[in-house]
Structures are given as C-alpha cells and as structure tokens.
User: What shape does this take?
Amino acid sequence: MANERFKSVSVIIETRDLNKIYEGALRGQDVHALKNLNLAVNSGEIFGYLGPNGSGKTTTIKMLLGLIFPTSGSIEILGTTDIAAAKVKRNIGYLPEGAYYPDFLQGEEILRYYGRLYGLAGAELNNRIDAVLELVGMTFARKRLLRGYSKGMRQRIGLAQALISDPQILILDEPTTGLDPIARKEIRDILARLRDEGKTLLISSHELLEVELISNRVGILFDGVLQTSGTLDDLLTTREVLIEVDNVSPQSIEVIEKAGFRIEDRVHQRMKLRVPEGRSTYEALELCKNQGLTLVGVMPRRETLEELFVRVIGAAEAERRKAS
Amino acid sequence: MSTQDVVNAGGDALAARKPTGNGVFSTVADYLRGPWCIAIYTWREGIRKKTLMGFLILSLLVIFGSTFLSAFLDPSAESDMELKLIKDICVTTISIFGVLITIFISASVVPNESENKVIYTVLSKPVRRVQYLLGKFLGVQFIIIVNLALMGGLFFIALYLRQWVLPTLLLWSILLTYFEFLIISAFTFAISCAATSSVLPTIGGLFIYITGTLTEYLKDVEVRSGQSGEFFDEMIGWLAYGLRNVLPNLQHFSLKMQILDRAPNDPPTDVLIPHLMAYGLIYAVSGFIMAYLIFRRKEL
Assistant: This one.
C-alpha cells in the first residue's frame, strides 16, 4: 500500500496564487473574491482563518473542498494537487456553518450515514460512532431524534460527523457561532484536544476570543487579500503597560494627557493610564508621583487578537479608500 | 506526533479502508456503496415530505372513493359503463398524481440539499459528483416506484374485487407508466441540477410532461404552420419540428384506452413493451448524462 501513502509533508494545506472571480451576469459585475492567496497550514496546528463577512473565507474553504473551482492558482493538500481524490477526502472532515441535519434521524443514524460515505462499515463504523459520540459528549443522546436536540447538541453532532473517519485535517466554518458560553467552552476544549492528538485544524470564525485561546497561527483576510498571517506571538507584538492610580484630579489628568498618555476606565478618582509601546513606564510612574497620585497597580498588557484584527482591517480599509 | 507520523497515519487509515476483494465485481460494488447510501437516505427523507404524502393520500382516496361511484349513478345505467368510469378515474388519477409526485420529488432533491447545505457535508466526503447524482436519482426512483405501486396496487385490488379476474393488463400499464415517469423524472432532475430552487425544475418538468403528451399534435402544428409561407408561421413549424424530434413521445406509454375497452386479463396490443422500455431507458440515461454535465463543474 506504499503508493497509497501521502508523501512526507509538513505543510498540510497550501495554496499558491489562488484567485477566484465570480462572474457577474453583466460585464463589469465580476467579483474578485480571492486575490493571489498564498496560505499555508502546518501539520498539527490550529490555524485561525479570520476576516469580516464577505472577505473570502468561505470561498477559500469551498475551494479546498472542491465545492467551487479556482479561477487560477493551485491548491495542495497532503502533498497532492489532486484534491478531489478519495485518498485526500478520506482525511478531511468538514463542518459547514449552520448546516442542517434531518430531524427524522437519530444522532447515531446521521453518523452512520456519513460514516458509510467514507467507506466505513461493520465493527469499524460502530467503533468510530462510539468514539466520536464519546469525544463530543453526545453518547447520552445517540438514540434521540434530532428534532429533540438543542442548537449546541446539533453543533456537536455536526462536529462528530466531521470526525467520523478520524481525519487528519478538520475544516470548521464558524464552529461556535450561536452557542452559549458553556457549549462554546466545551467545543473549544474538544478542538484543543484534537490538536493535541495531532490533527490539523483550519477554523474560520468571527469569535476572535475563541480563536485566540486555541490557535497556534492565524491569518487575517480582507477583500480577498491575506493581510497578515503568522503565530500569535509574532503578530500580537504591541505590548503596553496599564498603570492604575487613585486620587485623580482634573489638573492631573490634563498634565498626563499633555504628556501623551491615554486615560481610560476613569471612575470617580480612580483611573488607568496606558503607556504605549516605546514609551518608558518609569517616565509615566514619575509623572503620577509628581502629580501626587496613589499607585494602585502596574499591569503589562499584550495586544488582543481583536485589537490586531481591528488594526489590520482598519489599515486595509484605509488603503482601499486611498486607492479608490 | 511528528509530521511523518501524521502522514503515515493517514496512509495507514487509508490502507485499512481499501476494498479487500478483487475483480470487477468488488470494484463496482465499492463504487456503488456511496450512491446506495445516498439513495436510501433520499428515499427516507422523501417519504416524509408533507406535500408528497398529501398527493399520495389524495390519490389513494380518489381511487378508493371511485369504487363507491355506483351509489351516485343512475340505477338504470349499464354496469359496463360504471366500470369504465371507475377505470377512467383511476387511470387518470394515477397518471396525474403520479406525474405530480414525480416532478415534485425530482425537482426538489438536489436544490433542497444545496439550500440547507447538506450537499457540502456529502461532497466533502470521498463521494464524486457523479456518485452523488446517481444516489439522488436512485432515491427518487425508489420513491416513484413505491408511490406507483401503492396507487396501482389499490386500483388492482379494486378491479379484482369487482370482476374476480386478475387485471394483468393493468400491471403492464403500470410498468409502462413507470417508464414514462422515469423519462419525466430524468429531465426534471437534469433541470434541477442547474437551478437554485425547485420552482424552475417543477415548471420544466410540467413542460416536458405536457409537450411529451402532445407530441402528436406538434405534428399537426408543423404541417399547418408551413401553409401560409409567412416567416413567423415557418418559425413555429421549425419549433414544432424540433420539439417533436427531441422530446419523448409520452403517449406511447399510455394503455388507458385498452384498459377501458378491453378485458382486464387481455395482453396489451399494438405496443412493443421491450422497445418502449428501451426507449424510456435511453431517454432516462440521456437525462442523467445531461444532469451530470450540468452538475460536474457547478459551483456550490
């Protein structure tokens, strides 16, 4: 079976100069949904694929799955460009956003159906059904009709169908959208466990906090262009310091603001002042001391993914406005 | 886990899932496993559609009710006429409701799955588009066959209980009716592969049914339109000629007059059943190929 093995690859998903143009009914109505996308998802990582609505995330995912076709460029999955091949698809699990699963089937029957499509049968299929139901915490509801499932349960069954063949790659489109905080945490824990087991996950999401908590690397897409991508440590570089002080007066605020420090979260006589990256924290502390303020605390602060997202998208939007 | 382990694990998992048998039979069986699963799923989903069940129940009620028709007839009427009327109602009911069920189900299976995104989860599995279509088409055929069997079965029992003679002619008629539905179904299915909702394929299916039943009239239109020599008339003539030669002649499949006029156990006359079956199959295969050609590069 050596010919059936995939060649050794560390990049599991790779796109090269991928373009997608949706042709409009009339000339000039074409939509260039993806522009020269060069994306790489490494083995064993969770890659957070981010971007505002209409940025091209779902278009990328659909192309990876062969549901739509690139206008130009290439896609390589598991080291092969033949992404429609059964040997590739057997190793991909996909959870679409807001997919419907028929109400008249039991949770177990849904998994049996999808398992058979992967070519599983008999004891192997039964074992996989047991394993994935256990993994997503749905064993208790396996015989229940889907019409009795909550939204969170449906999402977990959706995740189970994506996992039924024990794929090496999981592509998840908005896996936690619309779920309550507890269900979100549960799904997040499952995804982290899958990563720890060596699976490669590509997650498209608007839930930036979720992505920040579990992703190794992220890519931010805007207007069909990959604006930035890299590890969170590399991307979230801006490091600031927050200094919390008490006994604040209007005069002291004026002095601090004049010195170029931003004030936030002011409540009565207490407030925080932000020391941006590149400015000295000692300088800010000295200023506070000179103004007679009482020091409450000093907190180092890294930029959040949300802030990075807003910054990157803001810059891209400004660039686009400038260009047009 | 190293990258090599991940890659090898993929290969090992794949190796475990390769078919163990050898030869053409096991290859074909392996290829058809996916379509078969999809067909069974389509069938299970289809029989739960309320509109379809409504058509079926209504048709069964009409067939069942027609057997009590004698209560509303003039007592002096001949019993032959009464039987003819019952047969007429039942054959027409099977034809009309059968066509409606056929068009409705053939027009909706693919667009509905696109709409609710089930198609994404299926085609992201190792299922080729042609296998998906084959599964859907087979599922549709199961639904049509079961509906036809229920309607025809009830009519068969009603006729048998009236005359105590096995109405074998009806069985031939049901068989041919199925092949008529097969053609309609294949072309409606093909149109549905290009559509985003079931409205257009439903209209298309009705168009095929109506024009297919009126092909003989198209001949008249063709002959008459050429007489005036005007451009518009000529164009209508060409259109009628084209439609008559391209569209299937569904009237060939009707044994209605024979059922009405002849004894229930008479063999069908003036029809070559194997030829008609082959005719139906050729059109159905053409429809399916058309569906595949439309669907193979369709952006979902």
Q: What stands out?
A: Confidence is low (pLDDT under 50) at residues 1-19 of chain B. Chain B has twelve helices and no strands. Chain B has one domain: 50-296.
